[in-house]
Amino acid sequence: MLEELKQKVYEANMELPRRGLITYTWGNVSGIDREKGLFVIKPSGVDYDVLKPSDMVVMDLEGNKVEGEMNPSSDTATHVELYNGFKEIGGIVHTHSPHATAWAQAGRALPCYGTTHADYFYGEIPCARNLTAEEIEEGYEKNTGKVIIETFQGKNPVYIPAVLCKNHGPFTWGRDAAEAVHNAVVLEEIARMNFMTELINPQAGPAPQCMQDKHFMRKHGPNAYYGQGK
Amino acid sequence: MLEELKQKVYEANMELPRRGLITYTWGNVSGIDREKGLFVIKPSGVDYDVLKPSDMVVMDLEGNKVEGEMNPSSDTATHVELYNGFKEIGGIVHTHSPHATAWAQAGRALPCYGTTHADYFYGEIPCARNLTAEEIEEGYEKNTGKVIIETFQGKNPVYIPAVLCKNHGPFTWGRDAAEAVHNAVVLEEIARMNFMTELINPQAGPAPQCMQDKHFMRKHGPNAYYGQGK
Amino acid sequence: MLEELKQKVYEANMELPRRGLITYTWGNVSGIDREKGLFVIKPSGVDYDVLKPSDMVVMDLEGNKVEGEMNPSSDTATHVELYNGFKEIGGIVHTHSPHATAWAQAGRALPCYGTTHADYFYGEIPCARNLTAEEIEEGYEKNTGKVIIETFQGKNPVYIPAVLCKNHGPFTWGRDAAEAVHNAVVLEEIARMNFMTELINPQAGPAPQCMQDKHFMRKHGPNAYYGQGK
Amino acid sequence: MLEELKQKVYEANMELPRRGLITYTWGNVSGIDREKGLFVIKPSGVDYDVLKPSDMVVMDLEGNKVEGEMNPSSDTATHVELYNGFKEIGGIVHTHSPHATAWAQAGRALPCYGTTHADYFYGEIPCARNLTAEEIEEGYEKNTGKVIIETFQGKNPVYIPAVLCKNHGPFTWGRDAAEAVHNAVVLEEIARMNFMTELINPQAGPAPQCMQDKHFMRKHGPNAYYGQGK
């Protein structure tokens, strides 16, 4: 079932090591079929070298395995929460990409220092709080998802398709698995640039709001004119 | 038309990912035929994997598309301004290369800390100011070019073939598209070295003027003796 | 003798340059056959290009060469001490991987800033003290092992399979040579992330203990549920 | 003439881009035949892609070209001075490798923070002073060599086969061209590690002298026991 989606999610997973976002098996990508209410996710702890499209695990939105011989990613319950909480998204990525993870470990939101950021993310990328001991005990992965959703109260997850989980690492999302991976690549790159920006000028401030508006909207707004108008 | 120039501009564009200056489609190179008053530029948002010489778009110096099926780079109006403002240049590059962009985001000119810099750029590489909200509204890309030209009042763009646009990223130029790319590579490398230089010694100062003169002139002056005398 | 172990130790050694942990011959991996009380180690100063499984040297736990035409690694006496002091371990790695070595040179334990660390190492990775002039004189490599063991008094080397030797570099270990290399790769990656973490936020603190417990135990505790339950 | 030496110097030059020490043509390697009093050096500004052994230029120790169609490296006069001043050396390398150059631009000697350094360099690697305007005017490249030699008054260039030239970059040397390149690789690696060391711990101090003695001497002293005793 969902063979085409499995293939796409497989390919999105394979893009992670190709883009240098992954050491060993530290990441997972999923993609959802909204009509069927089912999503496809990488199995847990399987090497990218041997991963096959048919290894992808099919899950429903209550967190039940619907198809697949392997255990799904240990972070599956986080994906479930995000798909339920953010109705517009079609794909989710988690990595431990080094620069984004460093910001998450530092417990800081990623400021919008420039147009590279503003081309993809509208405003700073928030850093979600730590889970409490009770939340960890009760359901670590599920509550990770709930805390991300809490972090986005008053924010638009379509306009800011990424979050840093404190002392952990980033999650990104998008219209589908491929776009979620694309956003993970961009997040890592801007985390790297912003790290250097602050060392070069500790007084650096965010890009002017009008510039952020311009760049985000020329790629994403109703009058977007970047690219070939697809 | 301009098949030879298209081929050269295509090759200069392809050098960007090969040199590690580009993530996804974040860059563009153009080259001009001064006699005809036409320039050739990469189309907007096209993957480097599928880019072909025939995809290059031909533009005139008033910003009209003369030939090409695709939309030109979204930064085309900046290239138009630079070709009109800097009559001596034959090629232009824009990238978001990470170290140069970090300096741009930090809003700082790149000091000349050594001979690697002085071999190519005579004095510090300036950082252009942010555009005002009005300038952005009126014509963002065009006014980006105007602000760069304003930045070079009293400076020689042939001696300093690069600029950092605040909160954005670098533009470089050269006698042709290939040299502009060459300068983009050098800029990224010195931005990286200079970043480290200041962390190693916050009191580091620029290279002595006599040393800057010597290095720039042994490669670029009338009595240049570097290379094989081409 | 020990042909299978030699092959595995050879392969573990070859993984070091593949993972970018090694410049020239700056590293060594060994693996032990606990039943026979013999271990196999890389010869000293041999290029990875020409290294063969049959070059591996067989040593006993008193530091005598049992088989092999070449000199064993100059750090062999350290391996002997660690195998004798840490009875549960089956493989040992020494490298000068750059980020881990930078922490060792800084003389600081590696704090647990996040889950990437906590997935593999339970608590901070200690930095062993310098040897005294007498200890160096008496037996540098052997006493390096003794000082590592001293550093682990009150700590569980199975739960923290790594150490930084001050002004020198890291040693890691594991159930076998392959796992010891895996831990060396992870150590380098977290040393890199943690370096950036402190620069992004000098006040960054360790991950909450409940989070460290959760991550370490979901991979290593009796109720581990990461991976495919092998 | 000197075909074998040309081949070796050619190979040593080609090792520079392979090891990532070089951008474009920013480096040069030479090797000397002490009996004949002639050395072989890379031509100036020739791309590594097209460089051939027969392009190597033969020079005498007074700086005269003895054979070769091309101009020798623009730094040839520095090599002449070093061969005349340091009689024990057989090969010289100049690069702008980024980390070593950052230290040179910072104007600081490279401290010996650990055994990676001490395995190759006995004590800190000095930073040579800037040339005066007069020295630059009179003979920039020649006086660069003279200032390096001045920097080594009271130091042994065989024990410290490297120098940083302020606001410029490193020179390394060795028994032959290949060893000089080897030392350039090591210098870049320790410059990188030491950069991070100081950021991790601004109070980091050099490795204890007894440790530096031990490591340098176990590889280089009369009782060296590292490697296979070649």
From TrEMBL, chains A, B, C, D:
Its EC number is 5.1.3.4. GO terms for biological process: arabinose catabolic process. GO terms for molecular function: aldehyde-lyase activity; L-ribulose-phosphate 4-epimerase activity; metal ion binding. Its cofactor is Zn(2+). GO terms for cellular component: cytosol. InterPro entries: Aldolase_class_II_sugar_metab, Aldolase_II/adducin_N, Aldolase_II/adducin_N_sf. Residues 7-195 form the Class II aldolase/adducin N-terminal domain. SUPFAM superfamilies: AraD/HMP-PK domain-like. Keywords: Arabinose catabolism, Carbohydrate metabolism, Isomerase, Metal-binding, Zinc. It catalyses: L-ribulose 5-phosphate = D-xylulose 5-phosphate. Pathway: Carbohydrate degradation; L-arabinose degradation via L-ribulose; D-xylulose 5-phosphate from L-arabinose (bacterial route): step 3/3. The keyword Metal-binding applies. It comes from the Bacteria. It holds the Pfam family Aldolase_II. Involved in the degradation of L-arabinose. Catalyzes the interconversion of L-ribulose 5-phosphate (LRu5P) and D-xylulose 5-phosphate (D-Xu5P) via a retroaldol/aldol mechanism (carbon-carbon bond cleavage analogous to a class II aldolase reaction). Belongs to the aldolase class II family. AraD/FucA subfamily. This is L-ribulose-5-phosphate 4-epimerase. It comes from [Clostridium] clostridioforme 90A6.
